[in-house]
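Problem 12. The chain below contains 311 residues. Write out its predicted structure in token notation.
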Amino acid sequence: MKKQSLTIFAVAFAVVLIGGVALAQVGTIDFGTTTQAEAPDVFGSGDAFPDEDGPEPPPAEKPEEDGPRVEEHGDEADEAHADATQETQKPSVEADEKAEDHADEAKEEPAEEPHESEEAADTTPPEFGITFPKNGSETDDKVQVFEGFVDDAVVTRGKYEASVHDGAWRIELVLSPGRNVVTMVATDFAGNVTKDTVTVYLVGHDKEEPKEEPKTVDFSAHQKYGSCGEVVPYDVFYGTASPGTKIWVASPYGEGMTVAGDNGGWDLKVKFPSAPAGKTFEVVVETSEGDRKVFTFINTGGDQQEQGEEH
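Solution.
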């Protein structure tokens, strides 16, 4: 190191002497240290130029072989630093492409379809109609077949449901004598309804009259004579009761039975062929409804009969 410094110093000195240069500076070579030693001022304040054997500048410390690496200076170091900075700050192309892909996906993503509950309700009534029998037709068959077409619906007539198959329906109904107005109803699964009506006449059958409620009549019973002098004595009983009520008249010597008529009246003649003359006995009237009434009767035959007296 000392020899290199002395050699450089000698060369510089020779240049000054030969070229007459006013000032020359020679810097020490940096072998790893960050500071540079200033070259001695050749034309310093001293009057005499230093001798070759004068004091030497402090030698630079020799870097250890395994010591820290020498820092790069100059243009190459600046370019390396700029490249590192640019590499650090430069955005990733792959990241940009991913960001653009996400943006495109967000733009191209279709709008969500409306939920089923948000869709418009089905208000279209089903296709439906009666094809048989024809409106106003006549028949003598009390059991009539009705047929027609329908589209995805249940076909009913009141509480009765028709059978449906491949867009057709069929049902059998019992007709009443005379005019029959039949309305069929088709109801789809959304609750929409379609109706169709046909009129059919049942002929050849008597129309049944509505049955009247039976009349209720209070019970009553009466005796017409109470005595008789005929050879075969008899008496007549009569009164009222509900239509159809059975009435029994009974005694030890004769009896009879009748039924109250539609107007509620009844009467009955009862003979007493074995009744002794001059004897009084009881005659009881009873009904099927639980009513009861008691009368007395006397046979006035004998001496009275000989005298021609009759009731």
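Discussion. The chain has three domains: 1-63, 128-202, 220-306. Students who got a different answer should revisit the alignment rule from Section 12.3.
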